[in-house]
């Protein structure tokens, strides 16, 4: 088993991966704590939630790449799974506010505002972190499993599947926008105070959350890499290329598609749960169709079917987004659109493809289509 | 071929009566057009059978109904005595021991030749095995053997999309070999092959008969003459004639609809 995992990367690949992990979980905190603030290498406190947010997006990109890059199933509804994880964590964070809300009530503020007298039944259990975690682990995957079962069993594919996922995210967004649904309506869940007793305002909590996110991303990456390097990964890419042939070779492709679809949703939910305490808010706008489309763009920009490309793409696009929303907020969507077109026309393998050109080994990695 | 032991699916194909495939009274219609019209076809265990017929005779549709791609409107298809193929899905049929080679060569173009064979290899094909197990020594040997048989040893690490046309045909035949089915359905195996490749293919298919039952659909008459004992002529979704190549060629009905034109 260890041998198999070690074989996932070349020595240099592992060195690079562990280098990044080391930077995130040791170097950055050290630079923050031990260097004086005026030093060039000092990492300011506000950087950690920001970097943490990027790492969450990177996890989402990983999830989208597994399903799209490898299995060829384009999902434009991964925002739903992200939000499910996010809301589950948000509900716990709401409950842990206690009576410190604006209205000094045991109920979350928005419920007092709606004049609700008691907690709806589906909020039971979210007083406990372990219960919230269980929901984070189970709900997005379970939902995806049921959705995927019916969609894949009916052999819905390609653009039809993508459209259905868009409809799914749109429908759930509308549902969550309603105040009566009981998740804070369009304001969503916010004003969190603490997680597991640690104040969310405290810089060390923020740093801790960042370090945990980095570790979870690292693990997710290794597991994903294991999956795509196994025979299962090869079956998935075969399904992407000629599904019929895979069936006539004796594989139940429904099981394979369901497996990777469910795992992808699970990863996405996990990312959402890590995202919410660092960003401090979750609301239905996360389920906007455009958000889910953006997730697919990250992967396309970075390079599909490589995992590393997805991580790179999520980083590049989101750093650009952060810069644009400050410098030229009106032009962000234009930029995103142009970027997508340019990548599609000139970099079919995404940005990762540029590196491939210099390493002759991967020169023929381009996907062969009929 | 070293086939694995304990293959429950295979041993359950009951051929005690000497017959491996029973196609009885099968009708398939598309928008009123009867692609198959009460087709009856029996394939003996270990037989090599050629199926010919003019375009639109229902040859490919026949393959489709046997492999579960198309459901018949009427009729029954049994694999051995007990497996009702009309009630099974594509992958179940494949798993039960029916392999198919498509008219247009269909291989996994982004996978290497070796990986193509690995994917086709007769083995447990559930997700957990695929996720956790590696090829064992026996399986590797089977793949190496198939590479040799189809002459692609040197190309084993090349992606299949980069192979020449003839090599692609051979790779697909190799995939069928490692899948180790009881019954092989082969649609136009020598289309686009050179004369020499055609001869080699004829030799290979002949050597398969006995261990496997083979059904070949082909237009190439010389090729059929060189391999077939028995030939079935399809016409308008029905069997027009059946017998040795000679019998069939001299059958006035066949001459009229097919060979005479």
Relative helix content of chain B: 25-40%
Number of domains of chain B: 1
Report the portion of residues of chain B in β strands. 15-25%
Number of helices of chain B: 11
CATH fold descriptor of chain B: Rossmann fold
What is the quaternary state of this protein?
heterodimer
Mean pLDDT of chain A: 93
Main β-sheet description of chain B: 6 strands, mixed
Instruction: Give start-end ranges of low-pLDDT stretches of chain B.
Output: 1-11
**Sheet with most strands of chain A:** 2 strands, antiparallel
Q: What general outline of chain A do the C-alpha atoms trace? A: globular
Instruction: Write the CATH homologous superfamily of chain B.
Output: P-loop containing nucleotide triphosphate hydrolases
How many structural units, i.e. domains of chain A? Answer: 2
| Low-pLDDT residue spans of chain A | none
Strand order of the largest sheet of chain A: 1-4
Q: Count helical runs of chain A.
A: 14
> SSE string of chain A, helix = H, strand = E?
HHHHHHHEEEHHHEHHHH
Residues in helices of chain A, as a percent range: 55-70%
Give the tally of β-strands of chain B: 10
Overall geometric form of chain B: globular
**How far apart are the termini of chain A?**
37 Å
Task: Describe the protein's architecture and organization.
The complex is a heterodimer of chains A (370) and B (261). Chain A has 14 helices and four strands. By secondary structure, chain A is mainly alpha-helical. The relative contact order of chain A is 0.16. Chain B is α/β, with parallel strands linked by helices. Chain B has a six-stranded mixed sheet, with helices on both faces. The model of chain B is unreliable at 1-11 (pLDDT under 50). Chains A and B meet through helix 9 and helix 10 of A and helix 3, helix 4 and helix 5 of B.
